[in-house]
Amino acid sequence: MSQHSDGSGAGTNNASNATDAPDTTSAANAANAANAARDDRLAELMARVARADRAAFEALYRATSATLFGLVLRINRERPQAEEVLQEIYIAVWRQAASFDRQRGQALAWLTALARHRAIDSVRRKAGQPVTISRFGAAGGGGGGGSDGGGGDADEIDLLERLPSDEPGPLDLLDDASRAHALERCMDGLSGEQRSSLALAYYQGLSHAEVAAHLSQPLGTVKSWVRRGLQSLRGCLDRATQRLGRVGRVA
Amino acid sequence: MDYARPERADRLAAEYALGTLRGRARRRFEQLMPAHPALARAAAHWLARLQLFAGQVQPVEPPARVWTGIQARLFGSANDAQADLGSDPAAARRRGGQLRFWRTLSAGAIAAALAMVVLLNRPAPEAAPLVVILRSTPEGGQLVPTGFVASVSADGGALVLKPLAPVSVDAAHALELWAVPKAGAPRSLGLIATGDAPTTVKRAKLLVDTSAFAVSLEPAGGSATGKPTGPIVSAGGI
After folding, report:
1. How many CB pairs under 8 A join A and B?
2. Nearest of B218, B162, B166 to residue B188 by alpha carbon
3. Whole domain around residue B156: which residue ranges?
4. Interface test with A, best of B8, B66, B223 (most A CBs within 10 A)
5. What distance in Å separates residue B236's CA from the closest CA in chain A?
6. What angle is formed at CA B49 by the lines to CA B45 and CA B51, rounded to 5 degrees?
7. What is the per-residue pLDDT for B107?
8. Which of A144, A243, B80, B136 has the fewest CB atoms found within 10 Å of its own CB?
9. Is residue B125 part of a domain?
10. What pLDDT is recorded for position A17?
11. Count of H helices and E strands in chain A?
């Protein structure tokens, strides 16, 4: 299903970055500068959108719509619905841009939160549980990952056909993220269940209850996995965002 | 709930950023943020942390009809949207296929037909725009000591609001413009730009059932209830 079946070897090259030592490679510096410049540009566009500047709105759409559409499609896989959600997102951006405060956060993070929340709402609006697919569905023991849908095999097959075979699952994405930001050491401190819970919640937009159903675990257990998982990652994530030069602006 | 307790604020903020804070709980959290800086700060921190996860998701280029739809829904004219796209080479590149051409053409035709219906149903427009002066109210004048001038196009389709002096409000607040009818609840026309920038409102029927325009002081992001919640700082009758 994925090219990331064995991530343990690939990560070792980056392991040295996991320390607090400042990143000295010019490529990394250039990437950080590019990130910071992109954030500034998006924040500037947001400020103009807040003043009802349509040209800025179009520029913002062009700069961010593919990113947000990718995130939405992860959570709501029904294309027509995902397109509708994307429209709602930008309509909300137009109307709520004034509530974005650049002193307090990054524009892309604000947009991402708006997009993910809208996508999550759109799935909730549909009756029943979202059917989820991932390579670690059977992790909880029990009888395989497909026990939560109730729709039977036909639904499962439909969904599987819609899913490109080489598309990474949520846990693959979390592994990628941890490699990209040198978080492996922190991730190693998390149990497999904690990682799975975080990956399902973030990338597929599942609720605690849905993650619990998916992993065949009690709700309370999943809630504490999520909470402890986030707390264990907290310090690492802070160091990584500082390396990216992103959080410095947050008062 | 005691949102001032730092651990609690942090935990809620983490769930907000992760997406596991749902439904009413999330909306309540969003409403509280403007008034609770600690909550807003915690949320911004967690959004920045979890943003590291977002970069791994492959971007997917949305079809051109999404942008056309946004334009049509916000600004009411698929024609304009198409013209905007046509002037942008990147958009032109993205656009493609005869089917889509016909689809947009028919969308444009429908919009034009609708515009015609609106036009025919409207009393003959006067030529000159209507100018309304919004004066500071005794109560609100201390908070935001400026008036505004609103010019409304004769057909009621557009409004430009200019402050008489530069406007400033703190980060936790925003100014919101309202169309006030003779009877019933005011309609929000959106948030007002700060500084001395003019605010443009494009909405058909601005003058239908409107007897005054008013500006209220609201939490950042605007009134969450759809009605003015803060003091009226400025108002003017038509």
Report:
1. 169
2. B218
3. 130-237
4. B66
5. 22
6. 115
7. 54
8. A144
9. no
10. 40
11. 10, 0
